[in-house]
Each structure stands twice: as structure tokens, then as C-alpha cells.
Amino acid sequence: MSFDARRNFAISSIAVAPTPAGSGLVLSLLAGGGALMPEPPFNATCWPPGVNPTAANAEIVRVASIEGDTVTLSKRGEEDTAALQIAEGWWFAQTITAGDIGQLQAAIEGKTSGGYIPEEISGPTSLEYGKAYFANTAGGPFTCQAPVAAGNAGRTFVLSAITPESANAITLKAVDGETISNEPEVLVAAVGEYDQSITVISDGTNLRII
After folding, report:
1. Among 65, 58, 153, CA closest to 112
2. pTM over the 0.90 mark
3. How many CA atoms lie within 13 A of 174 on its CB side?
4. Taking CA 71 as the corner, what is the angle to CA 68 and CA 72, rounded to the nearest 5 degrees?
5. Domain range list for the chain
6. pLDDT single digits (tens) 103-131
């Protein structure tokens, strides 16, 4: 797993707001602000002056590149935050976010390097990160509930169908409001299939099959 670069005191003010304010992807920092930032890509937090950042007034954005003091974003409203009307004078800073902590948890626990805890299941199960599930569908088809993606960037789990030829289907369903590779649910193994396996990772907002 690779981590975003970090720099202490990476904070500046926005001199030129993105256009449109709620969806634009280019902004400018005060003179010299670009030099205070780490090497992209990284996530940054934007919030109005005179207040502390909160879930109601702050937005996390994904920085793609910085040329001088001009910042180009690749995404708005990251890590389950809303895209706001960013304005001149707002603060722009690299902060510690839930996504950063999720990456650290994944690395420390070995969850992205094969260090999974094995567990056999034979019916509907709410899955957890860091586990490798071996699904026995001999008793009938069933659906498993995926864990929440939001706030768990970089964390993974494995779901495998192990029942021989008489196997029934097994499906993986995302939590409401999230997706798995852009779908609300995915078929892990169809009727008659076995030795099928998927590894799923959170990007901090949704799940993806890797």
C-alpha cells in the first residue's frame, strides 16, 4: 500500500475560488501557498475563515496537481463530505482525516497484504474487514452484507465460494447509499459455480472489487 505524501503546517488561504464554487476543480492559493503543500496526490480540507471545520461547513477534496499556487482537484466531496460553495478567503489545508486513519489501520493489521482471518459461513452474514470468508452454499443461496465503505479507505476483505458442483448462488450487497464497483450488489458465484473468489477494497466512499 502506498500512502499520500505529508508535510507539516501545510495550510494556506484560497485567493481565487473554483468556478463554479460547488463543482469547479481549479483554485488558487495565496502567493507562496503552493510551496507549503506536499507532493500530490493528497486530500485537503477546505472551510470558511473564522470558524473551526465541522461536518456542516467543511469539504474534503482530492488534489491532483499543483503548479505554482494553482491547485487542480480530481474530486470534490471526498470521504463522505458534501461539495460546498468554496469561496475566496477559505482555509485550505492538508489535515488528518478518517481516510488517513483507515489506511494506517489497514497497513498495521496486514489487511492489504494477505493477513486475513479465515472464517467459514453457510448463511447470510454481515462481513468485516480483515477477514477471508469461505462460503458454503450447500444449504441454499444467500446474500452477505458488505461492511461500510465510508471512513474505511484502504481496508479489504475476501469472499470465496467453496461448495462443489451443487453450489447455490451467493451475492454480496452494499450498505444503503454505497456501491460495489458501481453496483448496489454483485453476484460472487452463480448456481453450479465454486472456487470463485473476490477481494473487495474500500476507497473511503464506496467498495471496489480488485
Report:
1. 153
2. no
3. 21
4. 130
5. 11-95, 102-209
6. 776 666 554 445 688 888 989 999 999 89
